[in-house]
Amino acid sequence: MKVAPLHIGIVGCSAEGAALCYRTLCAEGPALLGAHAHPQVSMHTHSLADYVVALERGDMPAVAALMRDSARRLAAAGAEVLICPDNTIHQAWPLVAPHSPLPWLHIAQVVAAEAQRRGFRRLGLTGTAWLVASEVYPEQLAAHGIECLRPAPAQCEAMGRLIMDELVAGLFKPSGVAFFQQLIEDFKARGCDAVVLGCTEIPLIISDANAALPTLDSTRLLARAALQRAVAGPNADNGKPLSTLP
Fold first, then answer.
1. Per-residue pLDDT tens over the stretch 44-70
2. What is the total count of domains within the chain?
3. CA 217, CA 240: separation in Å to the nearest integer?
4. What is the pTM of this model?
């Protein structure tokens, strides 16, 4: 008897990134499950403004509380595994995972594993000012023996404004594309062999097709990892029940 794939719950934060993640689950599901098929998907999103207020005051317990509340709501809706297509709020991960009703896939762990698989050794990091200042990616990449380079402070500040004022609002301008292209050129000059698209909206304007370095699309990589986990079922990972995984 064929086992149904696990029900995926999306803990949303910003709309464009969450939408891209959802679209990827639905668009790439048929390759694993057959024509028009994908796992059940539920999503819950608190207002982005609630997250921004907490991030601006550096209040990770408040960020974690929002994420845990979404997790509880998704568990009640029948979800069996969770993902969050937002890199920045993964800063609150240590406060979320131990108290979550369901297991999660960690976006930076997924990206780090893909970087290792492809043999990258030094990655440039893009994302919000909050993410770039954090250890979300440096820690996960270091665990895989990969170096992480941050943008210069002025670049980081400008990138943060561009993301929050334009990309999260669905404004995709040529000037924004040019900014990220130059930033990636700078990472290449610093010896990077790839770049992390560490804001889940960046893949909407930057890809391997218009970047000077190979890109690691955190949004789609997370969605693909979730699909693989959903199809593998509740007893993946060497027979350990999914419900016990961190």
1. 999 999 999 999 999 999 999 999 999
2. 2
3. 29
4. 0.92
